[in-house]
Design goal:
This protein is α/β, with parallel strands linked by helices. It contains seven helices and eleven strands. The strands form two sheets. Strands 3-2-1-4-5-11-10 form a seven-stranded mixed β-sheet, with helices on both faces. Helix 5 links the parallel strand 4 (103-108) and strand 5.
C-alpha cells in the first residue's frame, strides 16, 4: 500500500484513538523550544489531522500543514474550521514536493520521518532545507529503535471503544516495521464495517539521522528523548536542527 493510502480509513479516528499521548504537553514542549528563536511562520510536515498545526497557530505562528493523505487533510481542515483556526493545508509528499514559499521553521511530529524510506530520506531533508529561510529551524522526532525492537516487534495493539475497535498487528524485520491495522467501525444500526490498511515504517538510528541532516545542509543543535527525557530510555528521539 502506498504511503498516501495508509490513513485512508484511520484518518477520522487517529486523534481520537491517540487521546492518551498527551498532545497538550507535547505541543507545549515544542512551542517552548521554538520560542528561543525569532520565528513567525511554519510548515507542519506530515501534519495528519492537524493537531500540532493548530497548536502552533494558537501559539501565535502563521501555519501551513502538509500531508500526503487527502483523508487526513480533509479531517485537518474540518477540525480547523470547528476551532476557528486559519491554518492553510497542502496536499503533497515532502520526498517529492518543493514548497512554493519559504518558512521560518518546519516541524515533522509523531513518526512522520519513520514513514520515509531510507533511500528517500536525503531527498526529503533537502526539500525541507529548501523550504526554510536562512537560519530556519527544523524540529522532528522518530520512534526510537528501542521502541520498535523491544515494544512493538511481534505484538498486537488493541483499543476497543464504543464507536470503533482498533487492532494493529506489528512485525519488525531488519530495519522495517509492518503495521497491519484493522478497524471495526460501528454503524447507527449496531452493525460494524471492517476497514484494513497497512503501514510501513522504517527504523532509524540516531546516527543515520544526524548524517542525513549534515548532508542536507543542517547543523544538528540537539537530540533528546521525548519531551526532553533521557534518550536511552525514551520511546522517541526529538531532533532540533538549523539551516546553515
Amino acid at each position: 500500500m502506498e504511503r498516501k493510502n495508509a490513513y485512508a480509513n484511520l484518518a477520522k479516528w487517529f486523534e481520537y484513538l491517540n487521546d492518551d499521548c498527551d498532545y497538550e504537553n507535547w505541543s507545549q514542549y515544542l512551542v517552548a523550544g521554538l520560542k528561543a528563536y525569532p520565528l513567525t511562520a511554519g510548515i507542519d510536515i506530515g501534519c495528519g489531522g492537524g493537531w500540532f498545526t493548530r497548536a502552533f497557530e494558537r501559539a501565535g505562528y502563521r501555519m501551513s500543514g502538509l500531508d500526503i493523505s487527502p483523508e487526513m487533510l480533509g479531517f485537518a481542515e474540518e477540525q480547523a474550521r470547528k476551532e476557528g483556526v486559519r491554518s492553510a493545508y497542502l496536499l503533497g509528499d515532502i520526498v517529492k514536493t518543493k514548497l512554493p514559499k519559504r518558512f521560518d521553521f518546519a516541524s515533522a511530529v509523531n513518526d512522520c520521518v519513520n514513514y520515509i524510506p531510507k533511500e528517500k530520506l536525503l531527498s526529503a531533508f533537502k526539500n525541507v532545507h529548501s523550504a526554510l529561510n536562512k537560519n530556519g529551524i527544523f524540529v522532528f522526532d522518530i520512534s526510537s529503535e528501542r521502541k520498535f525492537r523491544e515494544k512493538i516487534a511481534d505484538t498486537v495493539s488493541v483499543d476497543d471503544r464504543d464507536e470503533v475497535t482498533y487492532l494493529c498487528f506489528n512485525h519488525v524485520e531488519n530495519d522495517r516495521a509492518t503495521l497491519d491495522v484493522t478497524l471495526f467501525i460501528k454503524n447507527a444500526d449496531g452493525s460494524y464495517d471492517r476497514r484494513d490498511e497497512r503501514h510501513l515504517q522504517y527504523i532509524y538510528k540516531e546516527e543515520e539521522i544526524a548524517v542525513a541532516l549534515e548532508h542536507s545542509g543542517f547543523r544538528l543543535l540537539k537530540a533528546e528523548g521525548h519531551l526532553g527525557e533521557e534518550k536511552q530510555t525514551s520511546d522517541r528521539i526529538c531532533f532540533w536542527a538549523q539551516k546553515i
